[in-house]
Automatic annotation (TrEMBL):
Gene3D superfamilies: Winged helix-like DNA-binding domain superfamily/Winged helix DNA-binding domain (1.10.10.10). This is Transcriptional regulator, BadM/Rrf2 family. GO terms for cellular component: cytosol. PROSITE patterns: HTH_RRF2_2. It comes from the Bacteria. InterPro entries: Tscrpt_reg_Rrf2, WH-like_DNA-bd_sf, WH_DNA-bd_sf. It holds the Pfam family Rrf2.
């Protein structure tokens, strides 16, 4: 897969939180971990990164949990979630994983990979969390593998 496991879980967690927020619900770490089929401690760490990067809101207290404001769902783009968890390594480095690969010493895939990365970047920057959540609302099974 193109994204790290943590990033995949982060995307799925953000989508689940968005879906629940659209129904006016806050969700707990436990519920999210169960829904995305991820260990609780790992999920908590991912949610911490999403909160720190202002992708989701964490509300403390007995009625607390995670939520996302409806307006924010339009502003949060997929690239923001990827950057919060994986940084920008998806746009850098060699497509074959070689250490010595750049424009000066390109691997056989270097130039082809530049186009793929450009398209990927465009797609990630243009896809909102709202779009993702509402597009996947029909088939909730996608969250679990």
């Amino acid at each position: 897969m193109m994204f790290s496991k943590a990033c995949e879980y982060g995307i799925r967690a953000a989508v689940y939180i968005a879906l629940q927020s659209l129904d006016g619900r806050r969700v707990s770490v436990t519920e999210i971990a169960e829904e995305i089929d991820s260990p609780i401690a790992f999920t908590a760490k991912i949610l911490q990164q999403l909160t720190r990067n202002n992708i989701v809101n964490s509300v403390k207290g007995p009625t607390g949990g995670f939520e996302i404001d409806r307006e924010e769902m339009d502003n949060v783009k997929l690239n923001m979630i990827v950057k919060a968890i994986d940084g920008d390594k998806i746009y850098k480095g060699c497509g074959l994983g070689l250490k010595e690969c750049d424009a000066q010493k390109p691997c056989p895939l270097h130039d082809k990979f530049v186009d793929i990365r450009t398209d990927l970047s465009r797609m990630l920057k243009s896809t909102s969390l709202f779009e993702l959540a509402t597009g996947l609302e029909i088939g909730m099974t996608f969250l679990k593998r």
